[in-house]
Design a protein that fits this description.
globular, 43% helix, alpha/beta, 278 residues, TIM Barrel, 12 helices, two-stranded antiparallel ribbon, single chain
Protein backbone atom coordinates (compact mmCIF):
# COMPACT_ATOMS: atom_id res chain seq x y z
CA UNK A 1 0.00 0.00 0.00
CA UNK A 2 1.61 3.28 -1.12
CA UNK A 3 0.74 5.30 2.01
CA UNK A 4 3.28 3.72 4.30
CA UNK A 5 3.22 5.99 7.37
CA UNK A 6 1.49 9.01 8.90
CA UNK A 7 3.14 11.99 10.56
CA UNK A 8 2.77 15.71 11.19
CA UNK A 9 4.72 18.84 10.24
CA UNK A 10 6.66 20.21 13.20
CA UNK A 11 5.81 23.83 12.32
CA UNK A 12 2.10 23.03 12.42
CA UNK A 13 2.43 22.53 16.19
CA UNK A 14 4.13 25.93 16.71
CA UNK A 15 6.75 24.69 19.19
CA UNK A 16 9.13 27.11 20.88
CA UNK A 17 11.91 24.58 21.47
CA UNK A 18 12.85 21.00 20.56
CA UNK A 19 11.60 19.83 23.96
CA UNK A 20 8.30 21.62 23.42
CA UNK A 21 7.95 19.91 20.04
CA UNK A 22 8.24 16.52 21.76
CA UNK A 23 5.45 17.48 24.19
CA UNK A 24 3.19 18.69 21.40
CA UNK A 25 3.83 15.58 19.31
CA UNK A 26 2.75 13.47 22.26
CA UNK A 27 -0.54 15.40 22.41
CA UNK A 28 -1.27 14.45 18.79
CA UNK A 29 -0.66 10.74 19.33
CA UNK A 30 1.80 10.75 16.43
CA UNK A 31 5.43 9.79 16.80
CA UNK A 32 6.66 10.77 13.33
CA UNK A 33 7.30 14.27 12.02
CA UNK A 34 8.49 16.27 9.07
CA UNK A 35 10.78 18.79 10.74
CA UNK A 36 11.63 22.38 9.86
CA UNK A 37 15.39 22.26 9.25
CA UNK A 38 16.03 25.92 8.48
CA UNK A 39 16.10 26.92 12.19
CA UNK A 40 18.44 24.02 12.91
CA UNK A 41 21.08 25.59 10.65
CA UNK A 42 20.28 29.29 11.14
CA UNK A 43 19.43 29.41 14.87
CA UNK A 44 21.69 26.74 16.31
CA UNK A 45 21.65 28.07 19.87
CA UNK A 46 17.92 27.40 20.05
CA UNK A 47 17.35 24.59 17.57
CA UNK A 48 20.74 22.95 17.04
CA UNK A 49 19.82 19.95 19.20
CA UNK A 50 16.46 19.37 17.47
CA UNK A 51 17.33 16.03 15.91
CA UNK A 52 18.95 14.37 18.96
CA UNK A 53 16.14 15.57 21.24
CA UNK A 54 13.53 14.03 18.94
CA UNK A 55 15.34 10.74 18.51
CA UNK A 56 16.19 10.39 22.20
CA UNK A 57 12.49 10.84 23.02
CA UNK A 58 11.53 7.94 20.77
CA UNK A 59 10.17 10.09 17.93
CA UNK A 60 11.14 9.49 14.30
CA UNK A 61 11.82 11.86 11.42
CA UNK A 62 9.95 11.37 8.16
CA UNK A 63 11.65 14.22 6.27
CA UNK A 64 12.92 17.76 6.56
CA UNK A 65 11.73 21.09 5.22
CA UNK A 66 13.79 24.00 3.92
CA UNK A 67 12.28 27.49 4.14
CA UNK A 68 14.17 29.65 1.63
CA UNK A 69 15.51 32.99 2.83
CA UNK A 70 13.49 36.14 2.12
CA UNK A 71 10.06 34.66 1.36
CA UNK A 72 7.09 37.03 1.81
CA UNK A 73 3.72 35.27 1.89
CA UNK A 74 1.69 38.47 2.41
CA UNK A 75 0.05 38.25 -1.02
CA UNK A 76 0.16 36.08 -4.12
CA UNK A 77 2.16 38.85 -5.83
CA UNK A 78 4.70 39.06 -3.01
CA UNK A 79 5.32 35.31 -2.84
CA UNK A 80 5.61 35.13 -6.63
CA UNK A 81 8.31 37.81 -6.40
CA UNK A 82 10.20 36.49 -3.34
CA UNK A 83 9.43 32.78 -3.12
CA UNK A 84 11.79 29.85 -3.27
CA UNK A 85 15.09 30.07 -5.10
CA UNK A 86 13.82 32.29 -7.91
CA UNK A 87 15.17 35.69 -6.68
CA UNK A 88 18.81 36.23 -7.56
CA UNK A 89 19.27 38.51 -4.54
CA UNK A 90 18.67 35.67 -2.08
CA UNK A 91 20.14 32.81 -4.10
CA UNK A 92 23.64 32.89 -2.49
CA UNK A 93 22.10 32.68 1.00
CA UNK A 94 19.79 29.88 -0.09
CA UNK A 95 22.59 27.90 -1.68
CA UNK A 96 24.62 28.25 1.52
CA UNK A 97 21.63 27.14 3.61
CA UNK A 98 21.08 24.13 1.36
CA UNK A 99 24.72 23.04 1.69
CA UNK A 100 24.60 23.23 5.50
CA UNK A 101 21.20 21.54 5.63
CA UNK A 102 22.25 18.71 3.32
CA UNK A 103 25.17 17.86 5.61
CA UNK A 104 22.88 17.94 8.66
CA UNK A 105 20.27 15.76 6.95
CA UNK A 106 22.87 13.31 5.72
CA UNK A 107 24.41 12.85 9.16
CA UNK A 108 20.95 12.29 10.66
CA UNK A 109 19.89 9.79 7.99
CA UNK A 110 17.07 12.04 6.74
CA UNK A 111 16.52 10.92 3.15
CA UNK A 112 14.05 13.59 1.96
CA UNK A 113 13.99 17.39 2.25
CA UNK A 114 11.20 19.46 0.69
CA UNK A 115 10.81 23.13 -0.22
CA UNK A 116 8.78 25.54 -2.30
CA UNK A 117 10.93 25.97 -5.39
CA UNK A 118 9.24 29.28 -6.19
CA UNK A 119 6.86 30.15 -9.02
CA UNK A 120 8.14 28.22 -12.03
CA UNK A 121 7.51 30.19 -15.25
CA UNK A 122 5.01 28.50 -17.56
CA UNK A 123 6.81 29.67 -20.69
CA UNK A 124 9.82 27.41 -21.47
CA UNK A 125 11.51 30.39 -23.18
CA UNK A 126 11.33 32.57 -20.07
CA UNK A 127 14.98 33.22 -19.07
CA UNK A 128 14.06 32.95 -15.39
CA UNK A 129 12.93 29.38 -16.01
CA UNK A 130 16.33 28.26 -17.27
CA UNK A 131 17.96 29.99 -14.32
CA UNK A 132 15.66 28.19 -11.87
CA UNK A 133 16.23 24.85 -13.59
CA UNK A 134 20.01 25.29 -13.16
CA UNK A 135 19.67 26.26 -9.51
CA UNK A 136 17.26 23.42 -8.73
CA UNK A 137 19.51 20.90 -10.49
CA UNK A 138 22.41 22.11 -8.34
CA UNK A 139 20.31 21.78 -5.16
CA UNK A 140 19.39 18.26 -6.18
CA UNK A 141 23.07 17.38 -6.49
CA UNK A 142 23.95 19.06 -3.19
CA UNK A 143 21.40 16.93 -1.34
CA UNK A 144 22.07 13.78 -3.36
CA UNK A 145 25.75 13.98 -2.39
CA UNK A 146 24.57 13.49 1.20
CA UNK A 147 22.19 10.63 0.34
CA UNK A 148 19.09 12.82 0.42
CA UNK A 149 16.28 13.35 -2.08
CA UNK A 150 14.72 16.76 -2.77
CA UNK A 151 10.98 17.35 -3.18
CA UNK A 152 9.33 20.45 -4.66
CA UNK A 153 5.97 21.34 -3.17
CA UNK A 154 3.00 21.55 -5.52
CA UNK A 155 0.73 24.51 -6.00
CA UNK A 156 2.59 27.57 -7.22
CA UNK A 157 2.35 26.42 -10.83
CA UNK A 158 0.23 23.94 -12.75
CA UNK A 159 1.01 20.23 -12.54
CA UNK A 160 1.90 20.21 -16.24
CA UNK A 161 4.43 23.03 -15.79
CA UNK A 162 5.96 21.29 -12.77
CA UNK A 163 6.24 18.07 -14.76
CA UNK A 164 7.98 19.89 -17.64
CA UNK A 165 10.48 21.44 -15.23
CA UNK A 166 11.18 18.11 -13.53
CA UNK A 167 11.90 16.62 -16.94
CA UNK A 168 14.16 19.57 -17.83
CA UNK A 169 16.08 19.18 -14.59
CA UNK A 170 16.42 15.46 -15.22
CA UNK A 171 17.79 14.64 -11.76
CA UNK A 172 16.98 11.17 -10.35
CA UNK A 173 16.90 12.40 -6.74
CA UNK A 174 14.37 15.19 -7.34
CA UNK A 175 10.60 14.73 -7.08
CA UNK A 176 7.41 16.17 -5.63
CA UNK A 177 5.99 16.81 -2.19
CA UNK A 178 2.32 16.76 -3.17
CA UNK A 179 0.07 19.18 -1.26
CA UNK A 180 -3.53 19.07 -2.53
CA UNK A 181 -4.55 22.21 -0.63
CA UNK A 182 -1.89 24.29 -2.35
CA UNK A 183 -3.40 23.48 -5.74
CA UNK A 184 -6.62 25.06 -4.45
CA UNK A 185 -5.01 27.96 -2.58
CA UNK A 186 -3.08 29.05 -5.66
CA UNK A 187 -5.89 28.22 -8.11
CA UNK A 188 -3.75 25.72 -10.01
CA UNK A 189 -6.24 23.00 -10.87
CA UNK A 190 -7.80 19.79 -9.58
CA UNK A 191 -5.53 18.00 -7.10
CA UNK A 192 -6.76 14.54 -8.12
CA UNK A 193 -6.00 15.17 -11.79
CA UNK A 194 -2.59 16.54 -10.74
CA UNK A 195 -1.77 13.29 -8.91
CA UNK A 196 -2.19 11.47 -12.22
CA UNK A 197 0.05 13.97 -14.05
CA UNK A 198 2.82 13.82 -11.43
CA UNK A 199 2.37 10.21 -10.29
CA UNK A 200 5.86 8.96 -11.15
CA UNK A 201 7.51 11.81 -9.23
CA UNK A 202 5.54 11.92 -5.95
CA UNK A 203 7.82 11.32 -2.94
CA UNK A 204 5.54 12.45 -0.07
CA UNK A 205 2.07 13.94 0.38
CA UNK A 206 0.70 16.56 2.73
CA UNK A 207 -2.70 16.18 4.34
CA UNK A 208 -4.02 19.74 4.15
CA UNK A 209 -7.31 21.27 3.00
CA UNK A 210 -8.46 24.60 1.58
CA UNK A 211 -11.25 26.51 -0.10
CA UNK A 212 -10.61 28.52 -3.25
CA UNK A 213 -10.84 32.30 -3.40
CA UNK A 214 -13.81 33.71 -5.27
CA UNK A 215 -11.61 36.65 -6.32
CA UNK A 216 -9.02 35.90 -9.03
CA UNK A 217 -5.50 36.79 -7.95
CA UNK A 218 -6.19 36.40 -4.22
CA UNK A 219 -5.36 33.60 -1.80
CA UNK A 220 -7.78 30.86 -1.02
CA UNK A 221 -8.21 29.92 2.64
CA UNK A 222 -6.67 26.98 4.45
CA UNK A 223 -9.18 25.06 6.59
CA UNK A 224 -9.14 21.97 8.77
CA UNK A 225 -8.74 18.73 6.79
CA UNK A 226 -12.12 17.41 5.73
CA UNK A 227 -13.89 20.79 5.76
CA UNK A 228 -12.57 22.18 2.48
CA UNK A 229 -12.63 21.42 -1.23
CA UNK A 230 -10.16 18.53 -1.42
CA UNK A 231 -12.10 15.43 -2.50
CA UNK A 232 -10.45 13.16 0.05
CA UNK A 233 -11.95 9.81 -1.06
CA UNK A 234 -10.80 10.42 -4.65
CA UNK A 235 -7.48 11.97 -3.63
CA UNK A 236 -6.48 9.22 -1.23
CA UNK A 237 -7.61 6.55 -3.69
CA UNK A 238 -5.38 8.16 -6.34
CA UNK A 239 -2.42 8.18 -3.96
CA UNK A 240 -3.08 4.56 -3.00
CA UNK A 241 -2.83 3.64 -6.68
CA UNK A 242 0.74 4.96 -6.99
CA UNK A 243 3.47 2.45 -7.74
CA UNK A 244 5.80 3.80 -5.04
CA UNK A 245 5.34 4.09 -1.27
CA UNK A 246 4.87 7.59 0.15
CA UNK A 247 4.36 9.00 3.63
CA UNK A 248 1.36 11.16 4.48
CA UNK A 249 2.28 14.19 6.59
CA UNK A 250 -0.44 16.32 8.19
CA UNK A 251 0.10 20.07 7.76
CA UNK A 252 -2.01 22.75 9.45
CA UNK A 253 -0.89 26.37 9.07
CA UNK A 254 -3.95 28.28 10.27
CA UNK A 255 -6.36 28.17 13.16
CA UNK A 256 -5.90 28.12 16.93
CA UNK A 257 -6.78 24.46 17.59
CA UNK A 258 -3.82 22.81 15.93
CA UNK A 259 -3.72 19.61 18.01
CA UNK A 260 -7.48 19.06 17.62
CA UNK A 261 -7.18 19.66 13.88
CA UNK A 262 -4.35 17.12 13.65
CA UNK A 263 -6.54 14.56 15.45
CA UNK A 264 -9.28 15.26 12.91
CA UNK A 265 -6.86 14.77 10.02
CA UNK A 266 -5.66 11.46 11.49
CA UNK A 267 -9.26 10.24 11.66
CA UNK A 268 -9.90 11.45 8.11
CA UNK A 269 -6.98 9.48 6.70
CA UNK A 270 -7.87 6.36 8.66
CA UNK A 271 -11.43 6.47 7.29
CA UNK A 272 -9.99 5.76 3.86
CA UNK A 273 -6.64 4.04 4.44
CA UNK A 274 -5.79 1.07 6.61
CA UNK A 275 -2.72 2.33 8.40
CA UNK A 276 -0.93 1.58 11.63
CA UNK A 277 0.29 4.66 13.48
CA UNK A 278 3.80 3.95 14.73
Amino acid sequence: MPISALGVCSWSLQPDSPEDLVKRLELTGLNRAQIALSPAVSDRDRWGNLIPVLLESGKSIASGMMAPVGEDYSTLESIARTGGIRPSATWPANEAMARAMAVLAGKAGIDLVTLHAGFLPHDPEDPERSSMVSRLRLLGSIFADQGCRLGFETGQESASTLLEVLEEIGHPSIGVNFDPANMILYGMGDPVEAVDVLSDHILQIHIKDAVASKVPGEWGSEVAAGSGEVDWPRFLAAVQSLDQNVEAIIEREAGSQRVDDVHGAVNLVREHVELEIA
